[in-house]
């Protein structure tokens, strides 16, 4: 068994191993090459800081890492860990981290973060043994949104630019990696961004990915809450695009947003832990 970065490894090879590894996952899924390329782009995944396990030249395990600066610290994000079924039980995930952590430290990374489904106890045990700790709980929603009455004095129109300081002032918590500014900037050409305006004042906004049918960000200014502004934003997406949508990785501590999504008709089929490891 050998370990090396994924630099130079074809996306098609990574795709085959990715899908084989996830074929019996707790939530089985399969990606197309286009979807994998979209994931690599949106999550800023970098083969130079990702690692593969190779048996007789075949890729049998991998960790895909992205990178971004968050609160002035350089983070690596685990965008996917997988080992094909017949190679499990050999602690390959721990061995891959043993290989890649010195590489990340040498490149100046401060932390690694990842997400894991809460019922995936074997994976959680491995990550904890590797040095990760649970940092927060994230709820994932999907379903069909209930449409309803709108607020007459609110005007919904295209959000022409992302004023980070303004949009962040609406937040109560930091979006997860796949919903971060880095991710939405990467998908800006395909995403739908709408602002809710009262006269000329931006009161709330939504950023929606029509390809995945996912809400990436949804927030309302604190002084404008409980005026059905978020409902109106969802209503526009439901009417103009589709009422079937999802919103993943909502911070469990945000009671209001979780209750709102459930009241709008979405269910919570998956709950994840965000886990973090400090490298310094």
From TrEMBL:
CDD domains: NAT_SF. Keywords: Acyltransferase, Transferase. Pfam families: Acetyltransf_1. Coiled coil: none annotated. The keyword Oxidoreductase does not apply. InterPro entries: Acyl_CoA_acyltransferase (IPR016181), GNAT_dom (IPR000182), YpeA/RimI_acetyltransf (IPR050680). The keyword Acyltransferase applies. This is GNAT family N-acetyltransferase.
């Amino acid at each position: 068994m050998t370990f090396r970065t994924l630099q130079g490894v074809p996306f098609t090879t990574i795709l085959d191993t990715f899908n084989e590894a996830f074929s019996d996952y707790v939530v089985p899924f399969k990606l197309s090459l286009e979807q994998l390329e979209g994931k690599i782009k949106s999550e800023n995944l970098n083969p130079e800081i990702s690692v593969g396990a190779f048996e007789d030249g075949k890729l049998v395990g991998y960790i895909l890492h992205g990178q971004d600066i968050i609160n002035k610290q350089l983070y690596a994000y685990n965008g996917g860990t997988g080992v094909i079924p017949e190679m499990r039980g050999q602690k390959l995930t721990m061995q891959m981290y043993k290989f890649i952590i010195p590489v990340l430290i040498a490149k100046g990374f401060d932390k690694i973060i990842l997400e894991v489904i809460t019922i995936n106890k074997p994976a959680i045990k491995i990550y904890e043994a590797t040095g990760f700790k649970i940092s927060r709980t994230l709820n994932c929603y999907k379903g069909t949104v209930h449409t309803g009455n709108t607020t007459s004095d609110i005007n919904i129109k295209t959000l022409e630019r992302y004023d980070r300081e303004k949009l962040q002032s609406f937040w109560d918590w930091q979006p997860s990696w796949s919903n971060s500014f880095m991710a939405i900037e990467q998908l800006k050409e395909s995403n739908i961004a709408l602002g809710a305006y009262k006269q000329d004042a931006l009161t709330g906004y939504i950023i929606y990915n029509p390809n995945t049918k996912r809400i990436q960000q949804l927030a309302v200014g604190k002084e404008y809450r409980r005026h059905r502004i978020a409902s109106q934003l969802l209503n526009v997406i439901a009417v103009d695009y589709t009422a079937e949508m999802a919103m993943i990785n909502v911070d469990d501590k945000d009671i209001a947003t979780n209750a709102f999504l459930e009241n709008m008709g979405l269910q919570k089929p998956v709950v994840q832990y965000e886990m973090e490891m400090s490298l310094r």
